[in-house]
Amino acid sequence: MAGSGGNSLLAGIYSGLTNTYSYLAAQYPDKVTLENINKARTDSKTANIINQGFASYLQTNFQNIDKDKDGIISTEEMNNLTNTLTTQGLTKDELTQLYATGSSGLSASTIENILQHFDDMDSNHDGRITSAEISAYNVESARIKKEDEFNARKASNMSVFYGNEDSSVDSYSILSYRYSNTTQK
């Protein structure tokens, strides 16, 4: 995951939700209601077209998305949802729900890694992770990994200067060059 950018990770989720809503709005121009989402998920004509995972998310979270409680997810409410998710991030429960439905758009190992390290990634401890927090965590993880690799290879007991007595092969030291030249003269 260290090579994955947080922006591209969560952007797939935002796009999936937006595309699913757009599809529903096109199918049901009168309004996107809970009944219409249920119908789209079960209708044989649309069930194979609609992203079931994102539709499930909209269905499960309908009451939270429908802020004015009129029984309709309006374009404005959908825009507010995606803007909130973009700026404030996703909760662990939201990520788990999207993962469980297979609609996160992420590989299983990537989403499992995010969920496993969620608390570490949530740098401001607000219970949500943003793309920026994922990216910062990835950068810091890569830095620590490189630092650990460097420290594992760090010279000990002056092995760089004098060579390594524990080595099963001839080891090179800074002094090897000097002594090899003086013995050949």
Characterization of this structure:
With 185 residues, this protein is mainly alpha-helical. The chain has 2 domains: 6-153, no CATH class; 159-185, no CATH class. Helices cover 64% and strands 2% of the residues. It has helices at 6-27, 34-42, 52-60, 62-65, 75-88, 92-100, 108-116, 118-121, 131-153, 159-162, 174-184, and strands spanning 90-91, 128-129. The chain has a two-stranded antiparallel sheet with strand order 1-2. Helix 1 packs antiparallel against helix 5 (75-88) and helix 2 packs antiparallel against helix 3 (52-60). The N and C termini lie far apart (55 Å).
In a nutshell, what does this entry contain?
By secondary structure, the chain is an all-alpha fold. It has helices at 6-27, 34-42, 52-60, 62-65, 75-88, 92-100, 108-116, 118-121, 131-153, 159-162, 174-184; strands at 90-91, 128-129. It has 2 domains: 6-153, no CATH class; 159-185, no CATH class.
Topology overview:
Layout: H1 6-27, H2 34-42, H3 52-60, H4 62-65, H5 75-88, E1 90-91, H6 92-100, H7 108-116, H8 118-121, E2 128-129, H9 131-153, H10 159-162, H11 174-184
Antiparallel strand pairs: 1-2
Largest sheet: 2 strands, antiparallel
How much beta, percentage-wise? under 5%
Cross-sheet strand order for the largest sheet: 1-2
Order of helices and strands: HHHHHEHHHEHHH
The count of helical stretches stands at 11
| End-to-end separation | 55 Å
How many strands? 2
Give the averaged pLDDT, no decimals. Answer: 80
Radius of gyration (CA) equals 27 Å
Low-confidence stretches: 1-7, 180-185
* Outline: elongated
The percentage helix is 55-70%
* Total domain count: 2
Which structural category do the helix and sheet elements fall into?
A: mainly alpha
